[in-house]
Write a structure and sequence with these properties.
Elements lengths: L3 H10 L12 E2 L2 H11 L6 E5 L5 H9 L2 E6 L2 H10 L6 E5 L3 E3 L2 E2 L1 H4 L7 E6 L5 H10 L4 E9 H8 L9 H9 E9 L4 E2 L6 E8 L6 H15 L6 H9 L22 H14 L4
Parallel strand pairs: 2-3, 2-7, 3-4, 7-8
Antiparallel strand pairs: 1-10, 5-6, 8-11, 9-11
Length: 283
C-alpha cells in the first residue's frame, strides 16, 4: 500500500490536486485496508467491482484475493498512475469513466464487462456519488452478493436508520427493503489523505433473495420522493393531493392518514406501492 508520504510525492510529481467535487480522499491506513479485505470475505472465485480506483491501494489488495477485479475511475490522470503501479497484475480490468450515466441511471459501459454470475462490490465510494450509486445498485436487476462500502458517516447512518429517527428517509427504506444492511465500523478522517472534515462508516449490504417487480420499484421510488420531500406533513394529505388517494382507503393498509412519512416501516411503503398499482392510483 502507499503511505501518505508516497501519495504526496506521486501527486506532486504528476501535478495532481485532489478534487473535492470528485470525493478524492485516498486511503493511507494499512490496518484499515487489511480489515476491509478480511471483512469482505473475498475468495479466489470472486469477480469484484471497485468504484473509485484512486491510486490503487485497495485495488492491489483486492487483486491478490479475487479472481478478477473491475475497477472504475473517472479521473484520467489518477487512473493512469494506478495502471502503471499495478501493471504486473493480469486480473485487473480498468474502466475509465463515471460509474453513473446520470443521477437516475448507472453507466452501461462498465456493466457490459460483468459476468453472468453474482459479483461482489468492495469500494471506498466517493462521497459525491454515494447515495445515487447505492440506490441505483439496489434498484437494479444486477446480480451481486455481500458487499462492502466505505461511505460518509451521515450516509451510513441513513442506510441503517429506523422509523421515527432524524436520519430515516428514502435511502433507509430502499436499503432495508432491497438488502440486509449491517454497520461494520466508524472510520476516522485520519485514515485518508487529504483528510475529509467528517467521519466515514464501513457498511455491509447483502442483497435480499427476491425483489419487487420493476413497476412496483418505480412506484416505490416516486412515492418515497413524494412523501419524504414533505416529511413533516401528514401522509393522508400528501397522498390525497398528489396521488388522488382518498384518506379512508388507507385503513386497509393499517396506515393512519395522520401518520407522517417517518412513522412508516419500510414494509409499509412497499405495501402502499402495491396498493397504488393494484388500485390504479399511479401518478
Amino acid at each position: 500500500m502507499l503511505t501518505q508520504k508516497e501519495i504526496k510525492r506521486i501527486l506532486k510529481k504528476n501535478q495532481i490536486f485532489p478534487k473535492k467535487g470528485l470525493g478524492q480522499n485516498f486511503l493511507i491506513d494499512g490496518q484499515l485496508l487489511n480489515f476491509i479485505i478480511q471483512t469482505s470475505e473475498i475468495s479466489e472465485e470472486d469477480f469484484v467491482v471497485e468504484v473509485g480506483t484512486g491510486l490503487g491501494s485497495l485495488t492491489e489488495l483486492l487483486a491478490q484475493r479475487a479472481k478478477t477485479v473491475l475497477t472504475i475511475e473517472k479521473d484520467e490522470k489518477v487512473l493512469g498512475i494506478a495502471k502503471d503501479r499495478l501493471s504486473n497484475y493480469t486480473n485487473i480490468l480498468f474502466w475509465e469513466g463515471d460509474v453513473l450515466h446520470s443521477k437516475n441511471a448507472l453507466a452501461k459501459g462498465w456493466m457490459d464487462l460483468l459476468p453472468k454470475e453474482p459479483v461482489r462490490f468492495v469500494s471506498n465510494l466517493p462521497y459525491s456519488i454515494s447515495t445515487p450509486f447505492i440506490v441505483l445498485l439496489l434498484m437494479s436487476p444486477m446480480l451481486w452478493k455481500k458487499s462492502l462500502f466505505l461511505v460518509q458517516y451521515e450516509i451510513g447512518e441513513k442506510i441503517i436508520a429506523q422509523p421515527n429517527s432524524p436520519s430515516y428517509g428514502r435511502l433507509s427504506v430502499i436499503s432495508q427493503l432491497m438488502s440486509k444492511p449491517k454497520w461494520i465500523r466508524k472510520v476516522p478522517p485520519q485514515v485518508f489523505y487529504p483528510q475529509p472534515k467528517v467521519d466515514s462508516a464501513l457498511i455491509q449490504l447483502e442483497r435480499t433473495p427476491s425483489s419487487p417487480s420493476p413497476r412496483i420499484l418505480k412506484i416505490l421510488d416516486s412515492l418515497l420522493r413524494s412523501l419524504f420531500g414533505k416529511r413533516r406533513k401528514q401522509i393522508g394529505k400528501i397522498l390525497e393531493k398528489e396521488w388522488g388517494i382518498p384518506k379512508d382507503q388507507l385503513s386497509s393498509l393499517s396506515i393512519s392518514p395522520r401518520n407522517r412519512p417517518e412513522d412508516l416501516a419500510p414494509s409499509q411503503f412497499l405495501e402502499l406501492s402495491r396498493f397504488i398499482k393494484e388500485s390504479g392510483f399511479e401518478s
